[in-house]
Write a structure and sequence with these properties.
It contains seven helices and six strands. The chain has 203 residues and is an alpha/beta fold. The protein has one domain: P-loop containing nucleotide triphosphate hydrolases (Rossmann fold). Strands 3-2-4-1-5-6 form a six-stranded parallel sheet, with helices on both faces. Helix 2 runs parallel beside helix 3 (80-91) and helix 4 runs parallel beside helix 5 (135-148). The radius of gyration is 18 Å and the shape is globular. The protein binds guanosine-5'-triphosphate and magnesium ion. Magnesium ion is lined by residues 50-51, 74, 80, 126.
């Protein structure tokens, strides 16, 4: 088999094998609940890619035969709800939002009821991010966790964060407990920062 591969194909194989090894070697799948809806909560710092990932994940799960519901849990950033609605519309995936409430735990619970009535078997909570990990953010996420008991809490990390990504992951894991990490922007990014400081000031 190996002899029939071209040098180019061999390089691709070597890189793929190395990346698979680097990312843990084994495949780990989303933990679906036997009693739907399975609740997936996306958390992460501001701009890490949670909303975009929510759409990608919903689309992937739909291809696997699931019926996802996206839930707008970012009630702080103006236009955050609209952003998720646009993503949902593009993919033709329903979005649950409650524009008259700022209570994220309440909204999440309402979304679970909505999913049950509309027979959505997976719900994806798109939570708010902050520039830095702060107590207020963690407390809100902890309250949502206690309120709806997500089956999977996935940390969304911008792969361009570099070394700091480890500290972010550690902090979220210690404070909230995470089941997995989704790395975004592996395709690169048109924006470049010279240091963490610039990135933090970039908006
Ligand atoms: N190139 C690239 N850009 C991405 C990717 N994921 C997200 N982005 C971009 O990164 C920016 C932030 O993405 P969002 O999905 O809004 O991030 P967020 O974590 O929801 O941000 P907040 O809600 O403000 O906390 C947007 O401009 C996205 O288009 C990716 O995988 N690749
Ligand atoms: Mg967002």
């Amino acid at each position: 088999m190996l002899k029939s591969l071209t040098p180019g194909q061999q390089i691709i194989k070597i890189v793929k094998d190395e990346m698979t090894e680097l990312l843990g070697g084994t495949e780990s799948k989303i933990n679906f609940s036997p009693n739907p809806p399975t609740i997936i909560m996306l958390v992460g710092l501001q701009g890490s890619g949670k909303t975009t990932t929510a759409g990608k994940l919903a689309n992937l799960l739909r291809k696997q035969g699931k019926k996802p519901l996206l839930v707008a849990c970012d009630v702080y950033r103006p236009a955050a709800i609209k952003q998720l609605q646009v993503v949902g519309k593009q993919l033709n995936i329903p979005v649950f939002a409650n524009e008259s409430s700022k209570d994220v735990v309440h909204i999440s619970k309402q979304a679970v009821s909505e999913a049950m009535s509309k027979l959505n078997d997976v719900i994806i909570l798109d939570t708010a991010g902050r520039l830095h990990i702060d107590e207020e953010l963690m407390n809100e996420l902890k309250n949502v966790k206690a309120g709806v008991k997500p089956h999977e809490i996935l940390l969304v990390v911008d792969s361009m964060t570099g070394q700091d990504a480890v500290n972010v992951a550690q902090s979220f894991n210690e404070n909230l407990g995470i089941d997995g990490v989704i790395l975004t922007k592996l395709d690169g990014d048109t924006r470049r920062w010279c240091c963490t400081f610039c990135k933090e000031n970039y908006q």
